[in-house]
Amino acid sequence: MSITRSRRRFCLTAAGVLGAVAVGRPAVGGEPVKLRVKDVRTRFSEHRYRMPYKFGGTPVDRVTLLDVEIDVETPAGRRITGLGSMPLGNVWSFPARDLPYETTLGAMKSLATRLAAIVAGCDEAGHPLELWHLLEPDFLAAARTESERLGLQMPIPKLAVLVTASPFDAALHDACGKALERSSFLSLAPDLVGHDLSRYLGEEFRGVDLREIVRPRPADSVPLFHSVGGSDPLTAAEADAAAVPDDGLPRTLAEWIAFNGLWNIKIKLQGESLDWDVDRTLAVDRIARQSRPETGWRYCVDFNERCPDVAYVLEYLNRVKEASPRCLESILYVEQPTARDLAAPPRNDMHLAAKLRPVVIDESLTDLETLLLARDLGYTGVALKACKGQSHALLMAAAAKRYGMFVCVQDLTCPGASLVHSAGIAAWVPGVAGIEANARQYVPEASRGWEDRLPGIFRVTDGSMHTGCLADRPGLGATA
Question: Does the domain spanning 2-182 belong to CATH 3.30.390.10?
Fold first, then answer.
């Protein structure tokens, strides 16, 4: 689908979002980037998993990718095309027990059409961060309009809006970097953005600019966290029972460890059975150490908000420690153990749990307010995700640095260009503990051809992504 400027007024009226866009404050100094949107094109593609991926109690066996191309024009009349891509992870971002998969996916797809009209209809010219700031309220309003039009029992949540909007934001950042003939991560100076961070994060961030939270060049490598889903087989017998395809890729955890040279593992847990969660963690640890005895193993454990309360988390950590102190020491952090609505009762204070292991906010993190609430509740880290938007990730990384919080980069089963976007965040933001990248496990066919284009990112042999290749690639690095 393509939406050009000549069709903007019609499309925006049809979307129910026609309205004036506020004009930003004057630039801090220098000459801000002034990119103007000329055309927006979207495309959906469907891919089946080679085996289901179970998280949050739900198995997922397919992915719908949203690819976005945005043509922008510089003040000099130069045309640039930016690329963005992201899975529409509706099971994760729009969990609704009373709505079927196709309903939540369909809502996000129809929302994407509205967002395309909004972006195409933006008459402001600016840096991608500024455009995101101006357009996000319209994106949220469009989600409310679409929810009402569809008669949804549960409105499209903000997290799903961020996921749907993320490839549009990525395409704008990609175009910006290309226009400046550099990585998009080197286009963040206040004179280019037009503002310091107080514009986006409040007065506490006056005088702060994003160059303080990015490296001068990307890290040469980033540790890769291999995901062990809730139904993934650990042994050959389990692989046979689960009918894992014999397609040349590993079928068991030990085979994956050898295949990718792993030393970091993400363990998906249930949050419903302490016995199962503890046994699963110890089983993964046992196989890992048997496979590579001399490796300094690191794990993250992810409950996907399934724990009933913090007492469950404390009991889990204490039981793991009792069974294997070495295994507990290897747990680098615990990810989003309880429900994403942090303000809803009961109050789950994580201070005691965080004394045992860092506790990271993921599903809850949609803006600065939720980050501050999580911090008050004892969360000590944040998960950055390309699927929430390049602008969102950069701003949350800045906030995490200011508040001394641990950072990691998590996945949404991102293949192809979406994985490059995610890898860029992990490589350019300092202090990142590692990156999850599980599309190579569950939907490798969606990344076909990328191994030859960017082997350092798509061909893992020593447990790390080799991301130094992004240094000299313009934009977000997914196109030469």
Answer: yes
